[in-house]
Model the fold of this input.
Amino acid sequence: MSMTPAVRFLKDKGAEFTIRLYRYEEHGGTAVAARELGMDEHAVVKTLVFETDSRLPFLVLMHGDREVSTKNLARTLKVKAVIPCPPPTAERHTGFQVGGISPFGTRKKLPVYMERTLTDCPRVFINAGKRGQLAEMSPAEILRILEPTIVEAAV
Done:
C-alpha cells in the first residue's frame, strides 16, 4: 500500500476501508481492475474530472461499466454544457495521475457528484490515489466523508 494523499485523507477522516492492489494496465480502466480483483465492474467506481462551460472543475463518481450523460449532467447542474477534462487538466485539478485519480485528498477541494445507483452496491472499489490501488468501502462511507451531490447521469 502506498501512503498517497487519498489514503492519508481517508485515515484522517476515520474511514473504514481496505486497500486492494492489482496489476495496472495502461488504458485498461475499470475492466482490468475488476478482472484482476475478481469483482463485478459495476462495483468499481471511476472518478471523472469535468468542467462546466464556465471552466469550473468538478468530480463525478460513476460505475465502471457505465458512461456519463453530459447532457443530463449539465441539465442537473443548470449549466449550458459540461465537458470531460483532458488528462493534463484533470491532473492539475486533482494532483493525481490519470488512472489513479481519487476523490479523496485532491489538490484543491472540488465539488463531487455521485451516481445515485452507486448507493445500491453493498461495497465499492474506488481509486486510492495511485494506479493499481483501490479502496474497498461502503458507499455510505463515501457519502459521509465527501458529502457528494447525488445525481442520475448514467447511460
